[in-house]
């Protein structure tokens, strides 16, 4: 490393000196106003020198790329000529990596019907979720039962209210009937008494008959009135019972409804069945995450294994194959990769030849101008020698790769 560093520093020092010489010559040339002045040729020579330097630097980059591509081709050859056991282990590891990468891509593509809010809430109560779902479902069943019970009790309440109102109406009717009967028989008795005093006829039979009928009618009205009162009291008792039970059921219904609404709001669902579905989606998502983590861990393990295998082969660049796993599995992919590298290397050679030609043409043109003109600034000779030394050029030496 010390040798290359020293060489690099010398090259940088030499380039800095050339830049200083360029600057001094340009400063002197800029003061010349006449385009007929031979000094203007020196400006052209400097431009050619700069072109040679630029082309030489481009050639160095192309040579570096050429060496890299060549190393890749050598690596491909080394991989194809591996021993059977090593090749099998390498291929199996690459296959496993491809499978894991595909599993990870598929896991990322999976979507579950559960929101982030639902996932967060359920995660906090994961262990209690089966019991919560069962309680939610039981509350819904109990709520339906209470609805039916409330409907029945509402009907019973209405029925007893109507019956009691009818009995009260009948009681009022019989009271009016009793008054009417009493008034009628009283009037009749008065009439019989007046006839008895006026005529003097014997009215006792009629009086007894009227009294008998009055007694029977009064007794019947009394019995019916008594029955109505008993039925009215019974209806009132049943009505009060229905109201009491209705209040109790209403309280139960309010409590269970509040519990259901709380669950709905907390878990962002409408029914226990939907909560059960969301719970299943949560479990699937947790399993997806666990598989994703496991696949990542396995992928890291096999990537490390692949890196160790490639490192044991002694490749020039083993890291690049970590992103070219398919080529380690499929021979056609490896062949395509080799073909691309061969084509790329040929293009690099062609560009190198173009740069060599440009450099040589520029150097020959400098020699031609130097032969035709004798008077130059001293710095011109210094620059040309420095460029030849830096770029490896001369009037009689061809550029070599």
Report on this model:
The protein has helices at residues 2-30, 39-80, 84-109, 116-124, 129-199, 204-267, 272-313, 325-329, 331-372, 378-391. α2 (39-80) packs antiparallel against α9 (331-372), α2 (39-80) runs parallel beside α10 (378-391) and α5 (129-199) runs antiparallel to α7. It has 2 domains: 2-109 and 331-391; 118-267. The radius of gyration is 58 Å and the shape is rod-shaped. Residues 1-8, 24-36 and 396-401 have low confidence and may be disordered. The chain has 401 residues and is an all-alpha fold.
Oligomer: single chain
Span between N and C termini?
A: 23 Å
Q: Beta-sheet strand percentage?
A: under 5%
Run of helices and strands = HHHHHHHHHH
Which consecutive residue ranges, at least 5 long each, have pLDDT under 50?
A: 1-8, 24-36, 396-401
Q: Give helix % range.
A: over 70%
Backbone shape: rod-shaped
- Sheet with the most strands, sense and barrel status: none
> What's the helix count?
10
Integer-rounded radius of gyration: 58 Å
The average pLDDT value, as a whole number, equals 77
Structural class of the helix and strand makeup?
mainly alpha
DSSP, total strands: 0
Could you say how many structural domains there are in total? Answer: 2
